[in-house]
Amino acid sequence: MSFELLLHNISQHIDLQDEEKAYFTSLLRIKKLKRKQFLLQAGDIETHQTFVTSGCLRSYSIDGNGFEHILQFAPTNWWIGDINSVINKSPATLYIDALFESDLILISRDDLEKVYKQIPSFERYFRILAENALVTHQRRLLDNLTLSAKDRYTNFCLRYPSLIQCLPQKYIAAYIGVTPEFLSKMLNSKQLSK
Questions:
Q1: Gene3D superfamilies of this UniProt entry (predicted)?
Q2: Residue 189 falls within a domain, yes or no?
Q3: Residue 80's domain is classified under what CATH number?
Q4: Which of 47, 68, 104, 166 could, after both became Cys, cross-link 31 (CB 3.0–4.6 A)?
């Protein structure tokens, strides 16, 4: 597997010399997941940051009634992880699994610390990612508190345009916080009103 997609993602935020790229890529690990295979389960301690080079992952929790609540989808060219678990070395509260067969690149938290010391500009790259993630999660929280299900669905379509046609409705419903039945009725009434 090539690291070109990840290096291109990084190059959108920082410039690296060839030797810096070589050092960084020497610390990366490749992993493949089959459909429905777990990258992480609640209770495990996550030790890596994960970049998706093909496929799609999702992170989610399961409430006391057994309902899934999807926090994030990570299609190709996205990062995913249980940040609390990685940073605090605490048991994960999220499950992360593959929705489709997926190719991943992983870097351990320890190796990432080495990269920060050797190549300080990487702190800028991951700061930008963290800021973007914080903005996204804040916007999503406000959307869940203030928007209708229809508007949350519209925002989902804008955020994940590549996933609208390929995800089962039950996953979209779990992301926007409605039942699959409600989403189906909403989409059917939307189509009827056109």
A1: Jelly Rolls
A2: no
A3: 2.60.120.10
A4: 104
State the Cα–Cα distance between residues 86 and 182, nearest whole angstrom. Answer: 35
Neighbours of 5 (CB within 10 A): 17
Q: Could you list the residue range(s) of the whole structural domain that residue 48 is in?
A: 4-115
Distance CA(74)–CA(167), nearest Å, equals 12
| Distance set, CA 113 to CA 5, 18, 47, 92, 101 (Å) | 22, 20, 12, 20, 30
**CB contact at 8 A, 48 and 112:** no
**Cα dist from 28 to 7, 59, 62, 109, 194, whole Å:** 12, 22, 31, 11, 49
Least Cα distance to 168 among 187, 151, 141 occurs for 187
pLDDT tens for each residue of 139-171 = 999 999 999 999 999 999 998 888 988 999 999
